[in-house]
């Protein structure tokens, strides 16, 4: 267990440095937002580009892992949505946000640094988890929220059309455009596609690009983990039954569902199995809060679950590393 903590505690130590830095008011006003922007728009894309571009295409040959991870995400998503709707009596949009929150782990800010710490052989699997989450979980959530939002506004739009004030476009076309615009503006998507292009074409990395991306990417792990802690530190913690349910679902049920899906899928080796369970044991990503706010969904419980889940993840992640034999 000591070897496990030697891997996980330094990472979560950076999280708690950010937490106490914010609580002790050592960071200036707006400092956390600026740090998050640096990570999201600069450092993390550089790290993701290098993680993909420097791997041969054969490193991603385990399509079975991608399929199993995607299957586990869809199962967890559907079960969480059904639970929110039938058990918690939540509406469709709140149910969608809960399903996304308990299915979308922080594989970017926390998963990639952890995979790099464990060894380069684990990075391709974590990259596949990042891609699956971006293009399946996030996209599916936006589509579902868009459909519900458009249905809610249907009567208003219909009235506007009657008076010639609004020219309609096909709903599917409008939703597709919204999703594509969101993906096109994401620096993570763009850097991942650039890295994949480099890997597929086996292009040489110019020394200038190599040194620049290495310096910038090296800042991603400490800055991202510190930013997580600082974001936690500025959010008061007031848990309720709903947020506690999401924490338990994310840190316990999601890893179990992922483990079962990976076990049932043929062609999964021990490394893929271990990193899949570890990725599922990570706390929820903040994307859920951001997207929920955009669509006007009440997200205070989501914010609380992300805060508390990120603090408790030192236990779930350490346990996942230990039980899978990663250390």
Give the helices and strands, then pairings.
Layout: H1 2-23, H2 31-53, H3 63-87, H4 92-103, H5 107-118, H6 123-152, H7 154-162, H8 171-184, H9 187-201, H10 207-218, H11 220-233, H12 241-264, H13 270-280, H14 287-294, H15 300-323
Helix pairs in contact: 1-11, 1-15, 2-9, 2-10, 2-11, 3-4, 3-6, 3-12, 4-6, 4-12, 4-14, 5-6, 5-11, 6-8, 11-15, 12-13, 12-15
Structural summary, described in words:
This protein has 327 residues and is mainly α. 78% of the residues lie in helices and 0% in strands. It contains 15 helices and no strands. The protein has helices at 2-23, 31-53, 63-87, 92-103, 107-118, 123-152, 154-162, 171-184, 187-201, 207-218, 220-233, 241-264, 270-280, 287-294, 300-323. Residues 165-170 have low confidence and may be disordered.
| Beta strand % | under 5%
Overall outline: globular
DSSP E strands, number: 0
Major β-sheet profile = none
Number of helices: 15
Low-confidence stretches: 165-170
State the end-to-end distance: 8 Å
Helical fraction: over 70%
Order of helices and strands: HHHHHHHHHHHHHHH
Radius of gyration: 20 Å
* pLDDT averaged residue by residue: 87
Structural class label: mainly alpha
Features:
327 residues; 15 helices
Brief summary:
By secondary structure, the chain is an all-alpha fold. The chain has helices at 2-23, 31-53, 63-87, 92-103, 107-118, 123-152, 154-162, 171-184, 187-201, 207-218, 220-233, 241-264, 270-280, 287-294, 300-323. The longest helix has 30 residues, at 123-152.
